[in-house]
Amino acid sequence: MADFTKEIERPLGQSVRASASRPARRFSRGQAAGILGVLAVIGASTLIAFGEKPFRKPVVVATPAPQDVKPAEAVAQTPAAEPKPIPQPKKNDGPQIIRVQPTDTGGQAGIVIQDASAVGQNLSVAHLPDKALIEDGEGGPLPTRSADGRRPFDVYARPWSGTRGARVAIVIGGLAVSQTGTQSAIAKLPGEVTLAFASQGNSIGRWMQEARRRGHEIIMQLPLEPFDYPNVNPGRNTLTVDASEEENLNNLRWVLSRTTNYTAVMNYMGARFSSDPEAFGPVMAELARRGIGYLDDGSSARSVAPDLAKKDGVPLAIADTAIDSVQERGAILKKLDELEATARAKGYAVGTGSAFNVTVDAVVSWVNEAKKRGIEIVPISAVAIDPERK
User: Fold this and answer.
1) What is the C-alpha separation between 130 and 127, in angstroms, rounded?
2) How many CB atoms lie within 10 A of CB 76?
3) CA nearest 265: which of 321, 194, 167?
4) Domains located in the chain, CATH noted
5) Please, which domain of life does this record's source organism belong to (predicted)?
6) How far is CA 132 from the centre of its chain?
């Protein structure tokens, strides 16, 4: 015991000379247990010091970063900041104004609409006429340019993507002649299909509202004199070559006053009238003054509509073919396929038809398949040549 005490009291760093005769030191069971306990504590401390979270809390020590450590590595040594939630854009519960031509609105960045036609019109207000585009006429409201120059052709146009891929415009006419046929056509046809209303029809205002609520762009059919008139008669208020300018303009205004919210008129028959520039000239000038477009059904190669529209600045579209001259499903689908080929060749194509059940059903089927092939179905305003559009 005396030797052990002296061992402890000996100054640090001084060794004892080995003695061959001195017996080897032995530890008691208590001493051994104490040593094992100390080792266990040291091992646990080591694991805590070098272990992963959550066993230790990282301590950031402000020391100069070595020259060969990149800033990104230095940042990685610091605790990651709690991610902040990404603010979501607020929804606009009110009506949104959709412009056909892109404008610099200064809106929120990072929001891209790839397909405007999928977004569509604000259907809750599409049937409401813009009061600034209405002139009071003797027979009813007449379309007109607003004081700031806006045209019905622009304001009532259905939006589309604006891309320059293959586009097909389909116009189905004869709406409002048969009430059941009109209801069926409006309900079945996709909103991208343009609807043309017969001026001789009934309840045009009512059907206009229904069509607009469902996203259709609409136009009015204008009865014009054919070559074998009056044996073939487009109906009352037909514009004729022998009538005076005033008579024809009065008949035109009667047609225009039948409803509102349309972008253009198209000829109903009229091979003779559309070939006479003297008779047709004042009519086209009136359309230009009112901001209304014109669709030529393409049935007459003698039509002077292109020359007059260019002269007066009227938006003009010309149909490539009538899709239902033969009222049989297979023949109609073949015509629609021809439209697709034309659109792929020149960028766009226009087809016209009537609201027969077979035509409506064929168009519905073909449109669904054409979209899968990359064809965009667009309103007639999207393919019109517009002298005022830059």
Assistant:
1) 10
2) 10
3) 194
4) 137-382 (3.20.20.370)
5) Bacteria
6) 26
pLDDT, tens digit (0-9, with 9 covering 90-100), for 86-107: 333 333 333 334 343 333 334 4
Read off the pLDDT of each residue in 355-362 and give the average, rounded to a whole number: 98
Structure-block tokens of residue 272: 């003779």
Nearest CA among 269, 264, 353 for reference residue 309? 264
Cβ atoms within 10 A of the Cβ of 144, count?
Answer: 19
Cβ neighbours of 250 (radius 10 Å):
15
- The DSSP secondary-structure symbol of 221 reads E
DSSP, residue by residue, 241-304: SSS-HHHHHHHHHHHHTT-SS--EEEEEE-TTGGG-HHHHHHHHHHHHHHT-EEEE-S--TT--
In the DSSP assignment, the letter for residue 141 is: E
Give the integer Cα–Cα distance in Å for 317 and 292: 12
Q: What pTM, to 2 d.p., does this model score?
A: 0.71
What digits encode the pLDDT tens for the residues 254-309? Answer: 999 999 999 999 999 999 999 999 999 999 999 999 999 999 999 999 999 999 99
What's the one-letter identity of residue 372? K
| Confidence label for 164 from pLDDT (cuts 50, 70 and 90) | confident
Tokens encoding 359: 């035509």
Please give the structure tokens belonging to residue 141. Answer: 């409201």
Strands, DSSP E only, in the chain? 134-136, 141-143, 167-175, 194-198, 218-224, 264-269, 293-296, 316-318, 321-322, 348-354, 376-377
- Nearest by Cα to 75 from 54, 57, 60: 60
CB atoms within 10 A of CB 30: 8
